[in-house]
Amino acid sequence: MRLKFYEEKDDYLIDRYTITEEQLRYTMSPKASIELVKQDKDRHAVLVLDEDKLVSFFVLHENEGVKPYSLNEQSILTSFSGCPNIR
Asked: Could you report the per-residue pLDDT of 28-62, keeping only the tens digit for each?
């Protein structure tokens, strides 16, 4: 497994990544998260890859983006999900 910061060329991985309706009760979808990442320099999408398959996704926030959640401005993890339909 490896971690990789999201790049636009990774959109095909995001398109194939699915999460359940139950997961969406607790986290934002990767597609919606990516849209926010594109608008906010303090958000960083991270892909967790197993070979060429996206198996997990999360967003790291820093600076002002952390303030609603923590006093630590360095970073906080949000929008975490794992893909239950890995093939």
From this structure: 889 999 999 999 998 899 999 999 899 999 888 88
Looking at the chain, the number of H-run helices and the number of E-run strands are: 3, 4
What count of other Cβ atoms lies within 10 Å of the Cβ of residue 47?
A: 20
Length of the chain: 87
CA 60 to chain centre: 8
Tell me the two tokens of residue 23: 């997961």
In eight-state DSSP terms, residue 39 is H
Q: Say what the pTM is.
A: 0.81
Question: Residue 59 class from Cβ within 10 Å (0-12 exposed, 13-18 middle, 19+ buried)?
Answer: buried
